[in-house]
Structure formats: C-alpha cells, structure tokens
Design goal:
There is one protein chain. Helix content is 40%, strand content 13%. By secondary structure, it is an alpha/beta fold. The chain has a single domain, classed as Rossmann fold (3-Layer(aba) Sandwich), CATH 3.40.50. It has a six-stranded parallel beta sheet. Strand 2, helix 3 and strand 3 form a beta-alpha-beta unit. Helix 2 runs parallel beside helix 3, helix 4 crosses helix 6 and helix 6 packs parallel to helix 7. The radius of gyration is 16 Å and the shape is globular.
C-alpha cells in the first residue's frame, strides 16, 4: 500500500494505529522509525497512536509521534513503573490497573503464547515477581490489539520486525494477534518505501 492510500484510508476519527516492533533495531534504521512516527502524526491529524513503551522500535516510533503531538501517542504498559522517563507526557494505560479476571478474551489470547501460557493463572491470582515481568508484557500486547475499557481495539498495525524471524518474541505474538483479529498489518518492507 502506498503512503497516500494508507493516509486516505485511515485518517479518520476513532482510528487507532498500533506502532510496535522489536527492541533490537538494526543500526541505521533508528532514524527511519522516528521519521515514520513524525510523518504519520503530521499527515494523520484525526487518529491516535498506540505502543507498548518498550525500548527500541516502540520508543522510536513514539518519539516521532510525540515530536508532533504527544497527546495522540498512548502507551500500554505492563506495570505503572514501566519506563517512566521514556513515557513522560504520554497517556499511559497500565496492565496492573486493569481487572483482568473479567477479561476472558484477553486471557484467552494471552494463553496462546506457548512460552508464557503457564504463567497466566499465577498472574491472575496476584503472583508478582520474576514471573510477572515475563507475563505482564504479553498481557500488555493483547490489550494493545484487543483494547480494554476506554481503549478501543487497534485498527491497523505498523510493525518493525526481525525480518529473519518475524514471528519471534512479543512482536511476533502481537502481529499474529492482529492477523487473527483481522487488523491489517504493515511491516518495514512496505513502510520503508514511504520515507
């Protein structure tokens, strides 16, 4: 999809653009992620952006959006202390402030991450510590896509992937969840062409 077609299709009220990606950004790509966030925020004045506040791609995308309009950059965080300096001035939604026990769909989708499924019940029962540091980001990724409460579901996802293993890690989980939910996804093969 061309940049102009993307903007025309999605620059509408109530659209949420998910900006997510891997932590290890290839040297030389950092400026591209910031540039994309800035371009989209400048040209798409009716949408909101959502990210997970992780180091790497999430943070770089958010820097670009925030340089134009930080009020439209929202972050979903695994806990209220998560990278406070990185999200300064951004609207944050914390997983530890959500009563997940009533969120059957979020629980169901989070269990699909085979590496962390065994940690779901303990987290829901209030177990915190090392295990919560592992499972809370997966819950966060589910909420970023599915929404919860005031957070409407994502409309479209723009990803910065590990091209050698695009299904890897939390980013791969998030992209697959988007696809399961019929949320269109765009990766750097497409959006690099927009810069």
């Amino acid at each position: 999809m061309e940049q102009n077609a993307f903007i025309e299709k999605y620059n509408k009220a109530n659209v949420v653009i998910l900006l997510a990606g891997k932590r290890a950004v290839v040297p030389g790509d950092e400026d591209k992620l910031v540039a994309l966030g800035k371009i989209l925020a400048e040209k798409m004045d009716r949408v909101h952006f959502r990210s997970g506040n992780a180091k790497g791609a999430d943070e770089l995308f958010a820097q670009g959006v925030s340089s134009v309009d930080p009020s439209r950059m929202h972050v979903v965080i695994p806990d209220s202390d998560h990278r406070k300096k990185a999200r300064k001035g951004l609207k944050a939604y914390s997983i530890d402030a959500i009563s997940l026990l009533n969120e059957d769909r979020i629980i169901y989708e989070t269990r699909k991450n085979k590496k962390t499924a065994h940690l779901v019940d303990g987290y829901l029962e209030g177990v915190r510590g090392k295990t919560s540091q592992i499972i809370a980001p997966i819950f966060r990724n589910s909420v970023m896509v599915l929404g919860q409460g005031d957070l409407t579901p994502a409309t479209v996802g723009i990803f910065y992937l590990d091209l050698a293993d695009p299904d890897a890690g939390g980013t791969g989980f998030t992209m697959k969840l988007c696809q399961l939910e019929n949320v269109p996804v765009i990766d750097q093969y497409t959006w690099f062409e927009w810069l």
